[in-house]
Amino acid sequence: MEPQPSLQRSVAETVKLLINGRFVDSKTTEWQGVVNPATQEVLAAVPFATDAEIEAAIASAKEAFKTWRFTPLAARARIMLKFQALVRQHMSRIAQTLSAEQGKTFADAEGDVFRGLEVVEHACSIGSLQLGEFAENVARGVDTYTIHQPIGVCAGISPFNFPAMIPLWMFPMAIVCGNTFVLKPSEQDPLTPMLLAELALEAGIPPGVLNIIHGGKRAVDAICTHPDIVAISFVGSTAVGTHVYNLGSQHGKRVQAMMGAKNHAVVMPDANKEKSLNALVGATFGAAGQRCMATSVTVLVGEAQRWIPDIVAKAKTLKVNAGMEKGVDLGPVISKNAKHRILDLIEEGAREGATLELDGRPIRVAGFEKGNFIGPTIFSGVTPRMKIYTTEIFGPVMVILGVQTLKDAIDLVNDNPFGNGTAIFTQSGAAARRFQSEIDVGQVGINVPIPVPVPFFSFTGSRGSKLGDLGPYGKQVIQFYTQTKTVTARWFDDSTLSGGVNTTISLK
Ligand code: NAD
């Protein structure tokens, strides 16, 4: 979203930039409000950094790399140990800020911080993660080994829906590998990443190693084209991710783009009905459907198609309210724009002939009448050509399709343009095994509705959900943030000094 120039620095708090270890005021004239989605209160004003400020952030990262790259592994790990302790200590404060600017429930906001914290914990093991390989005697007296060296100034561009977890996917792993970093968080909820940055500095990350700029397309395009940035980690929508991937790649950068989704939950008739439907309803409507791993499509197989009234009944029990209220299950969506977009898609679904089983549009939340609320909404009778099926709605909307067999379900999932996450609910090992084998999707759950991998494994994706080979955490990210160098070495001593001139490629 482009800035609203009308909003000047009239609100109390202005979000700072982090350049060369200092939190600085931007000199820009472009500001945007950070708005509480439940109340419309403007919490702060976020600057769209000037070109000179973006340049300064990248320059400070470039300078810091000269020394940071040689910092001993254990020293880097120790900073991450301290950082993880600080994030843990301040979890509640971070989650409150997160809930206020993003809208999700306090419990889910803590989950957002915690899933990011797990990546920081993993970063503490860098001593065993960044190891190379060694083979003795690849030829007589010759050894070969690999070293994984840091690559330089890396950048991260993050989305609004996980303002703690996704920045924490990015800068800790990049930095602990010996790189320096420029983060461009979502302009819609930048306060949480700034809290994390404060703690990162307190943990001992030196000036210039972590920098933060704010902005929209102009800042993103500057990152994609700047000659001093070597790698970009992007998480966000498919349209923007594809742009970042293409522009960054054209400018010689290593790019990973984790993008949009339409995650199918396949429910077999032999599934444990109560547990499966609970899981399904929670995973569809939690975070108001604004998760890249939300199960937004329910595929009922065979007899399971009779369960629609049970799903609707469960969805009706969910409490919609402001994120900090007691007993709340889902909060508002991020912005008025997002709400209108979702309402338009619901309208379109009804127009295209899907059956609106539950309509969340008329919802009113007492005390928060201005909030961007949409109640759980369910469509049945959806077909693969409908817009509500082909488009990522990113709101509390479930679309239900019916199929006859597991094969039909697998074909349906594999034909969808996205391949981020999926889940099967069944008590049959054979069905689950076939599903896991034949499905073309990055994350697969078996009776697990949101199978976001723990950080020892890598987050992946297929088709419209991912560009680039390597994932944002797990073992893959070490490869992403390092350059493998392969060294072949021979040490001459008297016994090897024989054989004369070698004009062949053989290691004689
Ligand atoms: P978005 O693509 O609108 O924004 C992502 C980032 O790109 C932000 O920092 C934003 O400032 C920037 N941006 C926005 N418009 C731009 C433009 N025209 N040119 C250049 N940069 C631009 O995404 P969002 O709405 O913040 O987040 C929701 C999306 O992220 C959903 O599609 C969701 O599925 C996806 N997501 C994916 C994953 C994953 O791991 N696959 C995880 C979380 C979110």
Bound molecules: nicotinamide-adenine-dinucleotide
Q: What is the tally of beta strands?
A: 22
Q: Can you list the strand order of the major beta sheet? A: 14-15-16-13-12-18-19
- The number of helices is 16
Helicity level:
25-40%
Mean of residue pLDDT values: 96
* Inertia-based shape: globular
Structural class: alpha/beta
Task: Describe the protein.
The structure is a single chain. This protein has 508 residues and is of the alpha/beta class. The protein contains 16 helices and 22 strands. The protein has a seven-stranded mixed β-sheet with strand order 14-15-16-13-12-18-19, with helices on both faces. Strands 9-8-7-10-11-21 form a six-stranded mixed β-sheet, with helices on both faces. The protein has a three-stranded antiparallel β-sheet with strand order 5-6-22. α2 crosses α7 (191-203). Nicotinamide-adenine-dinucleotide binds at residues 157-162, 184, 186-187, 216-217, 220, 235-237, 240, 243, 258-261, 292, 392, 394, 420, 459, 461, 465.
